[in-house]
Amino acid sequence: MSSSKRFRFMRQILLLATLWFFALPSLSQSVSDFQNGTDGGGPYDRLIIRGATMIEGSGAPPIGPVDIVIENDRIVEIRNVGNPGLPIDPQRRPAKGTREIDAHGMYVLPGFVDMHGHPHTIDSGQGVPLEYVLKLWLAHGITTTRVVGAKSVDWILDLQKRSAENKITSPRIYAYPIFGQNFGRPILTPEDAREWVRWVKEKGADGVKLFGAAPEIMTAALNEVKKQGLGAAEHHAQLDVTRMNVLETASLGLTTMEHWYGLPEALFEDKVIQRYPLDYNYANEADRFGEAGRLWKQAAKPFSPHWNAVMDSLLAMDFTIDPTFIAYLASRDLMRQSRNDWHAIYTMPALWDYYRPSRDAHGSYWFYWTTENEMDWKENFNLWFTFVNEYKNRGGRVTLGSDSGYIYNLYGFGYIQEMENMREAGFHPLEVIRSATIMGAEALGADDQIGTIQVGKMADLVIVPENPLQNLKVLYGTGWIRLNDDTREVERVGGIKYTIKGGVVFDARALLQDVRDMVEASKAERGMPAGPMPMKIETVDELTPIRRN
Fold first, then answer.
1. What are phi and psi of 315, to 5 degrees?
2. Can you tell me the distance from the alpha carbon of 21 to that of 402, in angstroms, rounded to the nearest whole number?
3. Region label for 502, one of left (φ > 0), alpha (ψ between -120 and 50) or beta (otherwise)
4. Is 530 inside a domain boundary?
5. Side-chain-side CA neighbours of residue 272 (13 Å)
6. Residue 189's domain spans which residues?
7. Which of 50, 340, 377, 466 is deepest in the core (most CB within 10 A)?
8. Is residue 230 part of a domain?
9. How many domains, in total, are found in the chain?
């Protein structure tokens, strides 16, 4: 590499590191600091879930009542024990278990896979305990999380190990360290890139998270990733997307794209570079997200020849799209996203502070967010939805990730919001569940272990009292409201009852209570009242007195 190229590359790495310092959590807190032991029970010699209606994850329609037998961490039997509307014949049921869960009238689903997770800690910019994050994930049925951003490689591998050993209350972790992380020196050559990939493979990583780099560096890194049998995810950062869009990185071996950056650029027909305003500055979050909302309408029109050609190419490469619609939901409706009812009791005050307009917090770009900004983003979403839904329709793999912790996107709750976003994009509810389960498992190369309710697979399950296909909202920790016509009272129904990870049973409502206690304790420390977050109403003009007639 020439000295000029090396300088440009070092400058770029420094810029990316500076920008993402604020975007990623500070994870110096030891995993062992927050918890000793698990809140769950089991695994059991013989756990039986009785009488549930099963939604098994592959897209098959519900069936029930079924009894599911689990021994230790594995499903060993699924038995259809009756027909709807008729009493269950006791003779058809499996023998008694060590523990039994009465799930009559309830629904059981595979554990959910979150393909985009960032675990934060108390000493991060968000100021939230790690326990808070992990319990919100589990309470919303997330049994597996792909971590694609953590400050320390060793830290996230330690978290992964403790979760696998059931020493902490946590989803199963797949570790995707950020390219170049903790290497001790900058990556300046293709061989440096290869060496780093081999290094994280040896340490136990499952994959690599990329943002972009010089083409020769990206080519070497992705080649080595493929050689080492690792996964590869990329956020195609706008600082690098002109050098390699999604079509180019996928052809080199990238397995998953995050968000949507890089895809519209592959769909350009009359340009190479997005039409940036001439005073644009990527470090200005309002510029970054404002112009991002104008990107999809610069791409080829849906179902045009070029649009179809790009889609066909990605399909041929068995490429995975993990859209994370939820990460941008506030951009099209800030008021709605910022006033979701769960913020009142589940959002930490420190996290609420982090969400508010700020020049130095990633995603806090509400300096003057306008109706026109939201109109841009509504159009952006419609075009984005169209591509992703059609990709699914043509056999492409679309997974579900939340990227929680930013932009009024709360851990756990944001994952269920993403399900609703997929429904809006055109996915049938069964297709939504499929993306949340088996599609994620396939993308991780773990579909022989998780992703469907199947004999021989890990016992990763979600039990919910209401039918999520009729109403995905019943998966929220807050459930949903309805009028009881018998009592004429308004009642709140739903909320996941149990999350089971590898045969370990977690009471989801108890986990949520723990989170509420954390939030109330934090409010008390600040002298804040319990209940909804106080919304400061800024004075329009303090110097102009209000005139009253």
1. -60, -40
2. 20
3. left
4. no
5. 4
6. 110-443
7. 377
8. yes
9. 1
Whether residue 484 lies inside any domain: the answer is no
By C-alpha distance, which of 298, 285, 299, 265 is closest to 330?
A: 285
The verdict on residue 426 lying in a domain is: yes
Q: What CATH number is associated with residue 256?
A: 3.20.20.140
Q: Which residue, 415, 417, 428, is CA-closest to 389?
A: 428
List the chain pLDDT tens, one digit each, 549 residues.
444 444 344 434 433 443 333 334 333 444 444 454 568 899 999 999 999 999 999 999 999 999 999 999 999 999 999 999 899 989 999 999 999 999 999 999 999 999 999 998 887 778 899 999 999 999 999 999 999 988 789 999 999 999 999 999 999 999 999 999 989 889 999 999 999 999 999 999 999 999 988 999 999 999 999 999 999 999 998 888 889 999 999 999 999 999 999 999 999 999 999 999 999 999 899 999 999 999 999 999 999 999 999 999 999 999 999 999 999 999 999 999 999 999 999 999 999 988 988 888 888 888 899 999 999 999 999 999 999 999 999 999 999 999 998 899 999 999 999 999 999 999 999 999 999 999 999 999 999 999 999 999 999 999 999 999 999 999 999 999 999 999 999 999 999 999 999 999 999 999 999 999 999 999 999 888 877 776 555 555 554 444 444
Q: Say whether the peptide bond before residue 468 is cis (omega within 30 degrees of 0).
A: no
